[in-house]
Amino acid sequence: MKGFHQEKLGLSRRTFGASPYADIAEAHPISPSMALRSTDILTQTPQGLYCPLGDFHIDPVRPVKRALITHGHSDHARSGHRAVLATRETLRIMAVRYGEDFAESTQEASLGESMTLGDVTVCFTPAGHVLGSAQITIEAGGTRVVVSGDYKRAEDPTCLPYEVVPCDVFITEATFGLPVFRHPDTRDEVRKLLDSAALFPERTHIVGAYALGKAQRVMALLREEGYDKPIYLHGAMERLTEFYKSEGIPLGETPKVVASERSKLGGAIVICPPPSIQDLWSRRFPDPVTCFASGWMRVRARARQKGVELPLVISDHSDWDDLCRTIGDTGAGEVWVTHGQEDALVHWCTTHGIKARPLHMLGYGDEGEVEEAPQAGGEA
Ligand SMILES: [Zn+2]
User: Fold this and answer.
1) 163/217 Cα distance (integer angstroms)
2) For domain 2-180+317-371, which architecture applies?
């Protein structure tokens, strides 16, 4: 059966022998008359990517009957769906952000375990983006589609590393999909912060970082570099940081900033949401050094424009090299690019003999790094 479909679909270069879904696929054969195209498995709808054979959406931007969620960032994980299937950590993050009743029903997806939904099998695999983040593999009739969500290949002490899933169709983001984006070693970036803190012991270093993932990664990286003083948090960081700690991620002492004591925090490192680095909240600290941890800080003009004194190029997304490398690693013959700098990546695929198309999907990146840069004139 599989051989038939592979041949018919021109997929002979893929090896399905090791597929964890082999038994299930044999138990639910799809008629040989039904040659599956990638678009039979996944299509684009106003709500987002939809699998008609399994009757579910992935990371829908509007409320749907059944949603599979790749990770907890709010542009991917929205509230109001009837049923949600996601990793345990992503479900917990959604509960922290939206309350326990964020969906009518929830189901936990165990990493690496396949399950049957309608006429397809699905499997969640680590994406290396934030705690609990996963790629979602959909397989039917011998065709395997991987929806990567957001992902990165760089080391991150706060989440499981990305795992390559060989597939026929790879669906990728392209937030940093231009050759100019090459992320440096994060350890060097964190050392810049520590060097600055040592050089200006009277000043408060205020680091803008996205509340889910980036903030905790910066804290963990500081600890890895031996920084053992308290890391002060803006109130908006508190609950998700507590959640990371409860999951066994060592972040050390992270007291919340008490408004009346800001003037006493000279020499401290404080982490806050990106917009707060420019508002009145941060100006009450002693002679603050404004820092911002984002892949966008690679663009120095952007850092200057936003009034960032110490840009830290730390990203939870793949840079150009890793996007290209990952596409190659999956062995996919077809690539769909969901959002970001789609055209450059599509062009790269085409020149490397890989069929590719941009999806121009709207609604993603709203709370990702795209919009992380503080707004000009964001004075509170
Ligand atoms: Zn994300």
Assistant:
1) 19
2) 4-Layer Sandwich (3.60)
